[in-house]
């Protein structure tokens, strides 16, 4: 399906994703203004696109999926399962580029395909972490072996990640306990466990920092910001390479 508005929207959104991914990689922060140009241009293009193609068979289903997916992303962000930048990126993509203009239709939408592609690409991260920890002889719950590594307690505040151990002190003795895997799913709702919070609010985290200084090592989750594999997944999906489609073709 060739559509000039869709081509323009795709190009603008892709450029925005790349720029946002670079910001996220360097600082783990994406400025709000990053999304504004693509939201305006993409929004106008999306209206023009749907005005031209809404009558085509299956178009309403694609529109429905795009809106529902955007709503779910917003909900996951509220629950702390997605970062704000990640949610904004997926909502932007879902609403402004519902399908790809560069290949045949992919199921069920471009945003879903890009996210699934990103998940497949992200598998390399836990495999690398697991291999690294096994080689180094580090031991922790399996989920943490696949998502983190021990670092010097004094260096935690300079890392990007999530503090995966609860640290307490009793009678001058430091005690550590691994957090539950479920805690990491909703980790964005617990800012005091984030290394960024330790770095940006040292006064509020004085007690935690004091305890960390006494620890030889502390487990911290590591990982690539979602926007990085998401941008790669979007590029693949734009040109018709969709893990969702591949799975369905194998099953059906």
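Q: What amino acid sequence fits the structure above?
A:
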């Amino acid at each position: 399906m060739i559509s000039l508005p869709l081509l323009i929207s795709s190009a603008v959104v892709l450029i925005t994703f790349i720029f946002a991914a670079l910001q996220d990689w360097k600082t783990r922060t994406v400025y709000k203004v990053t999304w504004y140009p693509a939201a305006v241009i993409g929004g106008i293009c999306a209206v023009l696109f749907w005005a031209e193609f809404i009558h085509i068979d299956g178009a309403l289903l694609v529109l429905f999926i795009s809106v529902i997916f955007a709503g779910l992303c917003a909900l996951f962000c509220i629950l702390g399962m997605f970062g704000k930048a990640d949610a904004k990126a997926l909502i932007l993509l879902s609403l402004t580029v519902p399908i790809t203009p560069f290949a045949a239709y992919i199921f069920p939408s471009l945003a879903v395909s890009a996210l699934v592609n990103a998940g497949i690409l992200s598998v390399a991260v836990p495999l690398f972490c697991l291999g690294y920890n096994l080689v180094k002889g580090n031991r922790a719950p399996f989920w943490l072996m696949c998502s983190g590594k021990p670092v010097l307690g004094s260096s935690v505040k300079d890392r990007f990640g999530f503090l995966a151990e609860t640290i307490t002190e009793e009678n001058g003795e430091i005690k550590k306990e691994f957090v539950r895997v479920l805690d990491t799913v909703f980790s964005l709702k617990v800012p005091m466990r984030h290394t960024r919070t330790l770095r940006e609010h040292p006064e509020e985290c004085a007690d935690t920092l004091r305890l960390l200084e006494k620890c030889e090592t502390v487990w911290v989750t590591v990982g690539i910001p979602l926007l990085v594999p998401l941008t790669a997944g979007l590029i693949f999906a734009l040109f018709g390479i969709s893990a969702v489609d591949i799975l369905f073709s194998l099953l059906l």
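Q: And what stands out in the fold?
A: The longest helix spans residues 4-27.
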